[in-house]
Amino acid sequence: MAGKIKREDVDQVRERARIEEVVGERVAxxxxxxxxxxxxxxxxxxxxxxxxxxxxxxxxxxxxxGEGGDAIAFLRKADALSFVEAVEYLAARCGVVLHYxxxxxxxxxxxxxxxxxxxxxxxxxxxxxxxxxxxxxxxGGRDFLRSRGFDGEVxxxxxxxxxxxxxxxxxxxxxxxxxxxxxxxxxxxxxxGQRGHYxxxxxxxxxxxxxxxxxxxxxxxxxxxxxxxxxxxxxTPETPVYHKxxxxxxxxxxxxxxxxxxxxxxxxxxxxxxxxxxxxxxTAIATCGTAFGDDHVRVVRRLLGDSAGAAVPGRVxxxxxxxxxxxxxxxxxxxxDQAFYADTLVAVAPEGMDPCELxxxxxxxxxxxxxxxxxxxxxFAILTVLDQLDLDAPEGRVRGLHYAAPIVGRLRDPSxxxxxxxxxxxxxxxxxxxxxxxxxxxxxxxxxxxxxxxxDGATWAETGGPEGxxxxxxxxxxxxxxxxxxxxxxxxxxxxxxxxxxxxVVRAVLQAxxxxxxxxxxxxxGAFLTPQFRAIHDAIRSAGGVAAVGxxxxxxxWLDLVREASPSVVAGRVTELxxxxxxxxxxxxxxxxxxxxxxxxxxxVHGLVARLTEVVLGREIxxxxxxxxxxxxxxxxxxxxxxxxxxxxxETQRRTLRSES
Length: 661
Description:
The chain is of the alpha+beta class. It folds into 5 domains: 7-111, Zinc finger, CHC2-typedomain (DNA Primase, Chain A, Alpha-Beta Complex), CATH 3.90.580.10; 115-235, DNA primase DNAg catalytic core, N-terminal domain (Alpha-Beta Complex); 245-388, Dna Topoisomerase Vi A Subunit, Chain: A, domain 2 (3-Layer(aba) Sandwich); 391-448, no CATH class; 476-628. It is built from 29 helices and 18 strands. The chain has a 5-stranded antiparallel beta sheet, with helices on both faces. A hairpin with a 5-residue loop joins strand 4 (59-62) and strand 5 (68-69). Helix 17 packs antiparallel against helix 18 and helix 26 (555-565) runs antiparallel to helix 27 (568-579).
């Protein structure tokens, strides 16, 4: 068996992998200051962004859950990959050819295991289904697609395929590709019967379901023949890579537009996604055989960048059939409203048509108009409830108040709650004062018994404000947990000015070593008093200091050397500090002073190092004066002169620093 991937290849993958793109496929990132990007963490539920990415250094860190690392670490955490699988995925993406120790090639069937093997099985199966769609047996599938307005080019774009009406055609094909029955079964491609394994999908039109990276993780299959007694739609069962409560069909194609347009359109079927995209609604996605739930909410929120601090709220539009089943689905979606800060709306097409049917009968404009004309989900929910009652009767109006008041009471915005209170009073024909009393009572009951997404369970990083916990002048100090451990809470949370200064110096040097003065390398081993910063300083010295940045190949590679030289207990802290935003923009400023360009970043780092150097000089001067004042010091005139000369030299150095700053 071949050995591990060669170190130089791993380094090349790290260098070429653009971490903002790798992370951006799962998280909507926006500028976070000082060359940093921020978004909602994909590894824990939060409502204020505490997840930061620093592209220049190839690192990420979440100040909410404490996770961090490079692109390889992100993929391992996000997709439960092994180190080798993560490196191989990024290498294929970046065009890096990997080499393995001990020479020779690799047996993929032996070396690639777990998730990677199942992803590969699904990819091979998707190619098989797509090729089968052009065969004579798939005529019914092609006719179905044409009847929905999709030609062969569209089918190819979305990877639509056909599962032959055979008990084991796929099974035999997969075996021929080197997959074992255990692997094929684990991928959900076959079922187990009394006589062994057989194809799960037979005689059906098949849609590949991809995750955010574009990897095929499962399939959705629609029956075509009347003789098929199975369900209308049959999906891949739960597997290590396919979880129906988390996957969204079309998300791989829609993710960038969802973040760009800050809109997500939730439709009900695969053909609805295709029709919406073709009609000019590129943000359409669909659940796969299950209701829209909490896990789906988390995925959509991350793609939207949905947070309390958003200047303009995003839009989440649910589209449903106009029949009773569609109304029930809309009411289920209403239960998810409080999970979003985005505006939630519902669009119901006329005559009970879904987006695919609407496009067929009325064209692309009708689909776009449907989404543009969506009504607030709260209004739809209220009117749906009232529509079931006889509002001409006093009993019906009172019952309507009891049903609808809790819905209005759930509105977070007091002004919007007041407006809907007035509307509800008009719809019911009841005095506004009576309706207001009932709504307020419902609102109080909801606050007492319901978690608010922006409050309960918030971490210190979330309450610290959108800029993250280390932003000077922010609310990190207020949001820091009582008794917080060393290393958290940011500059405002440190107990004394010297520790705060040490924190800022280490952070600045790690993030901008190319802008640090050579005087930083002249600081001795005792320059830092805080243990963790002293350990990081020692690691920087072990990596050759800031003077070694160029020889290392740039700041990112130099930082890798620092992380490797750091003790394990502070290695994660190095990543965190390298990602934490600094209160200064990167790169040279555009303004000129006295005809010279001013590098703000350089001035910031130089100023911090100068301040720390002055503090260190002050300590050294104090130590020398203490030695000078000890009993018996005057008995040795030579030592006394030497001490005075040292003090004078240090005082001169300190005055020079002050004059330069």
